[in-house]
Amino acid sequence: MTRPLIHIFGGTSDARQICVMMDIAGIDYGLSVATPAGAQQATGLRGEIVIGRMAAEEMADYLQERGAKRVIDASHPYAEQLSQNIVSACRKLGLPLIRYLRPSDIDAVEHPLIHKVATLQQACEVAANLANRILLTTGSKQLADYVAQLKGKTVLARVLPTADVLAMCESCGLSVDQIFALKGPFSADFNRAFYQFCRAEAVITKESGEQGGFKEKVEPCLSLGLPCIVICRPRQQFVGEGITQANGLAEMAQLLANVNQ
């Protein structure tokens, strides 16, 4: 019996773990990542790695050409446009879609130093009222927006150590004293020492869950007395005909166990 070809979208650590599950189960798949850095994270996986962003029409054409029978969206929780494009492509082709949802513990985190917001703009408004040296642990994708919103403040950016990302930081006007090119995951002890080293007065982060080291980012803020501004995840509903949600890796494993049956 020919195994169904599954195509996965996502350069996250969760996506890699899902791919490892499929390697162990002997399930054929391909993996789409946005950047060469994402491809580096996929080193050692058995499936075909595809690099580059695709619009909905391009996705549909690619999936049809490759003969994909099923799609998994394991993209970053904040990659709203990507997820919308995946849904559109799957609906056009009539392909079943599994949307992987990274577990969240944001509702269990309450403290006067934690400020939960919905948007980048709100995060910047809160941070600007609380501090002058503001550390971003939100990645580089919207760095220019943060710099524009935090005009007059010292923006510190912890970003991936790639040439493209460093060039982006420089194009945003950040100096060598403001750029910290490091790759995680980071422990709570490392983050505590790092926050002290860069003399951060407030931290902006995202509700990245266990895989994104959310607790390891927040706990040092509380122990050091630093305000922590958390941009909460978009409240997207992935429902509809042909769409199945997998809440966490355990549920994903159960779904994959039925793929070859």
UniProtKB/TrEMBL annotation:
One of the record's GO molecular function terms: precorrin-6A reductase activity
GO biological process, one term: cobalamin biosynthetic process
Coiled-coil segments on the chain, per record: none
Pathway: Cofactor biosynthesis; adenosylcobalamin biosynthesis
Keyword Oxidoreductase among UniProt keywords: yes
Entries under InterPro entries matching the protein: Precorrin-6x_reduct
Keywords for the protein's UniProt record, in alphabetical order: Cobalamin biosynthesis, Oxidoreductase
Superkingdom: Bacteria
One Pfam short name: CbiJ
PROSITE patterns (alphabetical): COBK_CBIJ
The name this protein goes by in its record: Cobalt-precorrin-6A reductase
Source organism of this protein record: Xenorhabdus kozodoii
